[in-house]
C-alpha cells in the first residue's frame, strides 16, 4: 500500500497564520485561500480592506495551482508568450498568486492569494507554505 502526505487541520492553520502575518506585516489587504490536492477549499479569509473580487480570485488561483500541479504564474507566462491555447484549459485563474504545496515531489494542496500585485500575492502564499517547514502532514 502506498502512503503519502496530506494537509492536516493543523497544517492549514499554520499556513494560514503565516500568510496572514506576512500580509499584515506589509499592510497588504488580501484574501487567502488554501485548498487540498483536488482543489477543494479548506480555508478562506478576506482581510479587512481586501477587494471583494479577491474572495473569488484567491480560491481560483489556489485551485489552478493544485490541479495544474504548478504555480499559476506559469500559465500566465505561457499565455503572455503566445500560448493562447491555455485559455481553453478548465482553470479559472491563470494569474500569479497560486502556489502548490509540494511534499516529496507530490502536490498535497495549494495556497492562492489575491488583492495586491501578483508578485506580492505569490510572496504571501510562499510565506504561508514556508511555515510548514519540512513536516507537512506530520502533526
TrEMBL record:
InterPro entries: GlcG_carb_metab_protein, PduO/GlcC-like, PduO/GlcC-like_sf. SUPFAM superfamilies: GlcG-like. It comes from the Bacteria. This is Uncharacterized protein GlcG (DUF336 family). It comes from Paraburkholderia eburnea.
Amino acid at each position: 500500500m502506498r502512503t503519502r502526505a496530506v494537509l492536516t487541520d493543523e497544517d492549514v492553520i499554520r499556513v494560514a497564520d503565516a500568510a496572514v502575518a506576512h500580509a499584515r506585516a506589509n499592510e497588504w489587504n488580501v484574501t487567502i485561500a488554501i485548498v487540498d490536492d483536488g482543489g477543494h477549499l479548506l480555508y478562506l479569509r478576506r482581510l479587512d480592506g481586501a477587494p471583494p473580487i479577491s474572495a473569488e480570485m484567491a480560491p481560483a488561483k489556489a485551485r489552478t495551482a493544485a490541479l495544474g500541479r504548478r504555480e499559476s504564474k506559469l500559465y500566465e507566462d505561457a499565455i503572455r508568450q503566445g500560448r493562447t491555447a491555455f485559455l481553453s484549459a478548465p482553470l479559472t485563474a491563470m494569474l500569479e498568486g497560486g502556489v502548490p504545496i509540494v511534499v516529496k515531489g507530490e502536490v498535497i494542496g495549494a495556497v492562492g492569494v489575491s488583492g495586491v500585485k501578483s508578485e506580492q500575492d505569490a510572496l504571501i502564499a510562499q510565506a504561508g507554505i514556508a511555515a510548514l517547514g519540512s513536516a507537512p502532514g506530520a502533526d
